[in-house]
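Hi there, hope your week has been kind to you so far. It would help a lot if you went through both lines with me. No rush at all, and the record is pasted right below:

***
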Amino acid sequence: MVGLPGYSQSLIQGTIRYDTTRWKPVASLSLVPDFSRMYEVSNESIIQEAEIGPDGNFAFTGENMPPGDHLYRIHFSRKEDPRASLIIGGPDENHLFLLANPGSEIGIRIRGGRRLIGSISFEGYPVNQSVKDINQIAGFLDTLDYYGPAVNRDFVREAVYERLRRYADTCSNPLISLYALYHSRFESDFEKNPGYYTKYLRKWRKQDSEYFRTFRAQLRMDTEQNNIVPLVSALLFILMSIAVYYYRRRKKSEINPFRSLTVQERKIFALLKEGKSNKEISESCSISLSTVKTHVNSIYSKLNLSSRTDVMDFGE
């Protein structure tokens, strides 16, 4: 794939087979500034666009790419959609992620079928095989609604998150490691498992990229504390976690977070309470599965929940 005819000066080269009656013949490359914004897109975030030729080939140069490794997103737009539009989940999911730097040469082959982006293979920069592996592990969660009762799904979900955390712990590439951790719902885990994150931050304490600065900020830890003696650091982290826990309990007693839900989110919340799957909710509300997932994630975030079991136990 690297070295496609006619693209000898390219940095990222790819090929895709797609329905030309539904999709624009353009591929868009965006720089993802930090992992918490992987699914944010705007015209300003697109740093390059490439025409897709009749043979399905497209290519990007190193223009506008900052030095060093960064996470990038390639997406394709339906003809009726604006250029800056992402579709998350479902057969029309229209994007993929990769790691690149101005010195890397990367080939991408996208095989479609029922889905626009079916299987993906990378050539050139080998770290992207790890990106693919992490996406495959995390992608298993999208199939859980079709298997077993809720309690089994929660068990499998936690097993997947644990596998991603082990992947992050053993990975030698800092950005790949952090990419895995961001797929493990660390936001709801770090208060229960502070020792893991103290050790993790100590391992990568010399990493000063925007990706790690944002991650440390999300953990509400002062980056200057990363060089403190491990036992003291762990103790401070535990005390902070306890303080956050009681603060949230006090705020929850003062304000009912259920009021922050939109009308549609309250309807979906009620269906979740009844044990409905995403597919059943999609049919009941006449919305797509990807829209259901977006609403469910918003409900989890607003109510500080992490699973459907939490939904069942939540008192309005």
